[in-house]
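Format notes (please read before filing issues)

Several people have asked whether sequences and structure tokens are stored in separate files. They are not. Every record keeps both together, in the order shown below: the sequence lines, then the token lines. Line labels are part of the format and must not be stripped during preprocessing.
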Amino acid sequence: MNKVILMGRLTRDPEVRYTQTNNTLVASFTLAVNRRFVRQGEERQADFINIVAWAKLGEFCSKYFKKGQQVGIVGRIQTRTWDDDQGVKHYVTEVVAEEAYFADSKRDPSAENNSTFENTFGNTEPGSMGSDFEMSSSDDLPF
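Then the structure lines:
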């Protein structure tokens, strides 16, 4: 299984290019991901991970992701090699994004005391989301 889940901040705006063969959009950016532990007396370290997003996901990333923004990426690790004009072999390891998410909290000063869920979905009452399922008490549970 090859699955990577990352959360970090963009070090620059996504860079967009198109493939020569079929004109497919490719967005590339680098994610600074903090390491989990900090050694005593040292600053927190980060890993800088190259991300590639193709087609519609690449378009989404290029349109909505900006430098400094915190995002979540789900994808797979890919390695590739190529020879340059001088015959030198180059190796690169990158994450090919399969899913991308906003991870920053919403920055609305008028909604400082509200949770992120309420900012996104509003203040909902149980059963108001259109579900036909309602539970009146725990005695109704079949287990």
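For reference, the curators noted about this record: The first helix runs from residue 55 to 64. Residues 109-138 have pLDDT under 50 and may be disordered.
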